[in-house]
Amino acid sequence: MVTVVIFLTFAITAVACAVNLVVQRHPISAAVSLIGVMGSLAVIYLQLGAEFIAAVQVIVYAGAIMVLFVFVILLLNAGAERRTGHSHVARWIGIPSLGLLLMLLGFFIRNLAPASEIVRFGDFAEGTPKNIGRLLFTGYLLPFEITSVLILVAILGAIILARKETD
Amino acid sequence: MTGVPLSWYLILSAALFGLGVAGFLLRRNIITVFMSIELMLNAVNLSFVAFSYQLKQIDGHLYAFFVMVVAAAEAAVGLAIILTVFRNRGTLQIDEINSMKN
Predict the structure, then answer these.
(1) Chain A residue with minimal CA distance to B96?
(2) Looking at the domain covering A2-79+88-124, what would its CATH class be?
(3) By the CB < 8 Å criterion, does B55 face chain A?
């Protein structure tokens, strides 16, 4: 019972924040809504037994990435967006495609996820840092090392893109 | 009922992904569009973790972890690009950044 209440509370919070992200016209409001979504998702990860991912979600996503977003919004002094001409592609192709995608997803969820599969808190608690770290440094060593190169390239790219032209 | 059906988590993931796509299509501010992409990545992460629970394997957690790392790299580079675009064009409206269109 407690599990259902916790899930519903944070799921509704996440969806409400996501709707707020879509309808808000000021970027800083959208950023705060996105932080709400990420915080709620961290609790839901915890329910699914992913304690490491929940911690990383809060530290990296809600912490580092969103601080970067808020910094850029403040730096650029981004005000509310103006309502401009509508994109016909978005309206006539994008939105129907989105509806189609959601219908397909609903169909697959109905067929692939049996209703008998019940999530109970504590049933699956393998997502500890110890287990994740062991798998990361054995089975997923090559992707992990490639990731470190990717991060290095991203840092260099960000520095070169964002610096002022001095000459 | 003592627990939540797994499909509810997948429905939540689909709903968040759909909202991210809607934000990507409807918003006109380049930063908000970028945040919609982050919302979609979060929704996909939720699916990974939910299926990881169903299969009782932690491989899904590692995929979610890699998605987060790539999202961090993408956010750094993307925001640097937005900074450069704003410096050169003085605008964040994606309708006004259309020099490749005509």
Answers:
(1) A84
(2) mainly alpha
(3) no
